[in-house]
Amino acid sequence: MAEKITANNIYAFLSDGERINLECKKAQNSLPNSFWETYSAFANTNGGIILLGVSENVQQKTFDICGVENAEKIVKNIWNTINNPEKVNINLLKDSNIRVLSIDGKNIVAVDVPRADYNIRPVFINNNLSRGTYKRNHEGDYHCSESELRMLLRDANEQGNDRMILEDYTMDDIDIPTLEKYRVMFKTSNPEHVWNALTHKEFLRQLGGYSEDRKEHIEGLTIAGLLMFGKGLVIRDRFDNLRLDYIDKSNLIGDQRYSDRLTYDGTWENNLFNFIRIVIPRLTSGLPKPFKMEGILRVDDTLQHKAVREALTNAIIHADFMINGILKVEKFDDCFVLTNPGLLKLPVAQIYSGGESRARNQRIQSMLRMIGYGENLGSGFPLILHAWDEKHWLKPELIEQPDLLQVKLVLKIEKSLTSNNETKDDVVKDVVKDVVKELSDRQQFILQELTKDGTLSAEILSQKTNLTLRTIQRDFQKLQSLGLIMREGGRKEGRWISKI
Q1: How many distinct structural domains can be found in the chain?
Q2: Which of 13, 134, 377, 476 is deepest in the core (most CB within 10 A)?
Q3: Based on the domain organization, do 393 and 260 belong to the same domain?
Q4: What CATH number is attached to the domain comprising 124?
Q5: Own/partner pairs for 344-349, CB < 8 Å, 24+ apart?
Q6: pLDDT in tens, 236-278
């Protein structure tokens, strides 16, 4: 919890009732068995506080401080039990996690259960993995389903999810045109790399998309290889639990449900590489483009474009493709929403601060990084935050949805009303930028040159660009009509004043 419970603030905490990270138990005379169910649930979810000596009035939805009769005995019981592997498989508690508080002359015991690291989950009780593993949903503790339990066990594997060899899946199941498109991008990013000379199979082996187990005498495509470059039908047969979905719900007219959608319609091989390649241009098409020129060529990429690519890359490398779910990308007029199956391996606060990365699909992550998709370890989400902050857009929301076994990232493209201190001049600048991005590359180049040197004439720019004088004069008139330039002084002694 964000704030530590004390004798002074406990009533404020209780006023909001039990929730996903707060559990109250009467426990006047002894430690209830349900304490350990909550311990397991908090450890496997996001941690939380257990208050012993607090009773609930279910009808009135209020809490009473009843206190415990012997706090020392209860604390001792907790330590004795939690160190018994027959009862609890992992002890997450330290001395500082258990405190006795005096409230109105009554003692209660506050137990702060931390979230267990992904590599030591699941935390279970009664020496029973299948029936003793719990999760926290809202204010209740629930048995983990078989699917959820398998997910926790997979996440504990430091080598990731996508290294597994798919026996009997061979190079015949790879869509060669897809792999060739990837190899073109790979060679562009790594022109001198020795892998460029390898056969498709050996290239895929080096990437981690094809592997062999000498001990078991098996070889074949890995999960990473098939999902990234496989034929669509083969992927759908092997991963019938998974869907890839892109929906554009921006610029709708009337009762139109969507303006664009990428579905399994037979026009593309539905593997991850093609999904990324097709979706990113569509997703970023409406983002503001920079007024930046290199010679007479316009540079379209921005920090926000990079952030959207990073967001989609993150959704893929952190997805759990072994559970039922949808890798969904939605585009709205005011936001992007990216949803991936699986829960977070790291706490949300740790992801926001950056510095660490625990991708489920490490080989896919490597494949994407080799062609320029994905930041260095732990810097991806801070990049997204920085890009949105640069535009004063609302802070991105990373939402874990345990009941749906999915994670949602909401990127809102609208100004923050609380943190943005922009002035009227800032608004004007934004409007000007919107006008500028509608200009042709040639007109933007002329505007940029006049911004640098207002004494330039149409004749000089005609010579500089090898364009006709009449063409340059028409562009001058266009820029003037849009209010982007104005003339100060006479024709000979005056100069052009740019509004950017």
Answers
A1: 3
A2: 134
A3: yes
A4: 3.30.950.30
A5: 344/318, 344/398, 344/400, 344/407, 345/118, 345/155, 345/318, 346/118, 347/46, 347/115, 348/398, 348/400
A6: 999 999 999 999 999 898 889 999 999 888 889 999 999 999 9
